[in-house]
Design a protein that fits this description.
The chain is an all-alpha fold. It contains 9 helices and no strands. α1 runs antiparallel to α5. The protein is elongated. The mean pLDDT is 85. Its main location: membrane. This is RagB/SusD family nutrient uptake outer membrane protein.
């Protein structure tokens, strides 16, 4: 209810005060031990408050069957759900050579490749 209240306040006024954040969204964040969201924090890190409220709702209501309806209600379902999905194919496994397990020719939209360097960057630190 706190998340819905924060979202409604923002949608109604086009903004939300720190006091309103403290009586809604930050109660949820505080329970999880997460630092409170403030307008100053959003400004400092170039965050969009509405996106942060929606992100908080997504995280908090994970696996409660609200996401699809939220995406439709926010008018972003087509954009979010049509984004390419990537999953790992681990080199040196049966997936590389066994087309019964992995056959990209059967994919409706083909196969995409995305290079990730995060793990490499972490190992170098």
């Amino acid at each position: 209810m706190y998340l819905t209240y924060a979202e409604a306040l923002y949608e109604l006024n086009g903004a939300i005060t720190d006091g309103q954040l403290n009586e809604s969204l930050n109660l949820v964040r505080g329970r999880a031990g997460v630092a409170p969201l403030t307008n100053q924090l959003a400004t400092t890190y170039s965050l969009n408050i509405l996106e942060e409220i929606r992100r908080e709702r997504t995280v908090e209501l994970f696996q409660e069957n609200n996401r699809f309806n939220d995406l439709k209600r926010w008018g972003i379902a087509e954009e979010v759900l049509s984004a390419p999905l990537f999953g790992p194919i681990i080199e040196g496994t049966d997936y590389e050579t066994n087309t019964d397990l992995y056959d990209p020719s059967k994919f409706q939209f083909g196969e995409g490749v995305k290079q990730y360097t995060v793990l490499k960057d972490l190992r170098e630190r």
